[in-house]
Amino acid sequence: MTISKIYIFLFTILLFLTGCSDVSLEQQMEYYPNGAKKRELTYKGNKLHMTLVKLVDYYNELNTDNPQKISELNYENSSLNGEQEYWYSNGTKKMVLNYRYGLMQGEQTGWYKNGKSKFKQNYNFGNLEGIQYSYTTSGKIDRKKLYRNGKLIRIIKD
């Protein structure tokens, strides 16, 4: 190797290492045509590679300092990961879903627009597992179903 090739090689490595060492968060905003906030994207990474870590969508509301969220989704390595939250336009929480590397994992909970429970269920590696509870709009248990590895085993009668 000639000296100039060595310098080019070392300079390239130096640029790569410098770019990789500065991990930061960056936000990007999108707006509806009327100027209301539509979407907030948060990226994590360095100058060479940025990945999406959070996506927040908003209802189309103008003239508000605190727009109502539709959803707040968390990502890791381009897959849904962690707690995902959804809301109705009136601000009532709609669902909380948990993911682990793109697969539903753990407790999943939903509510009606009136705030009463709608469903409660558990997932294991993307498959329904255990008892799934469904509720009426008044919040009373409507039915229970038992799942194993994503397969319905039986409907539980009270």
Overview of this structure, please?
By secondary structure, the chain is mainly beta. It is flat, with a radius of gyration of 23 Å. Strands 1, 2, 3, 4, 5, 6, 7, 8, 9, 10, 11, 12, 13 and 14 form a 14-stranded antiparallel sheet that branches. The protein has one helix at 3-21, and strands spanning 24-31, 37-45, 50-58, 69-76, 79-80, 82-87, 93-100, 103-104, 106-111, 117-124, 127-128, 130-135, 141-148, 151-156. It has a single domain (3-156), classed as Outer Surface Protein A, domain 3 (Alpha-Beta Complex), CATH 3.90.930. The chain contains 1 helix and 14 strands.
Indicate the structural class: mainly beta
**Residue share in helices?**
10-25%
Strand content: over 45%
CATH topology: Outer Surface Protein A, domain 3
Ends: how far apart? 81 Å
C-alpha Rg (nearest Å) = 23 Å
Our count of helices gives 1
Report the strand count.
14
Total number of domains: 1
CATH top level label: Alpha Beta
Task: Quickly describe the structure.
The chain has one helix at 3-21; strands at 24-31, 37-45, 50-58, 69-76, 79-80, 82-87, 93-100, 103-104, 106-111, 117-124, 127-128, 130-135, 141-148, 151-156.
Pick out its properties.
158 residues; mainly beta; Outer Surface Protein A, domain 3; 14-stranded antiparallel beta sheet; 1 helix; 14 strands; 12% helix
Describe the secondary structure blueprint for this structure.
Elements: H1 3-21, E1 24-31, E2 37-45, E3 50-58, E4 69-76, E5 79-80, E6 82-87, E7 93-100, E8 103-104, E9 106-111, E10 117-124, E11 127-128, E12 130-135, E13 141-148, E14 151-156
Antiparallel strand pairs: 1-2, 2-3, 3-4, 4-5, 4-6, 6-7, 7-8, 7-9, 9-10, 10-11, 10-12, 12-13, 13-14
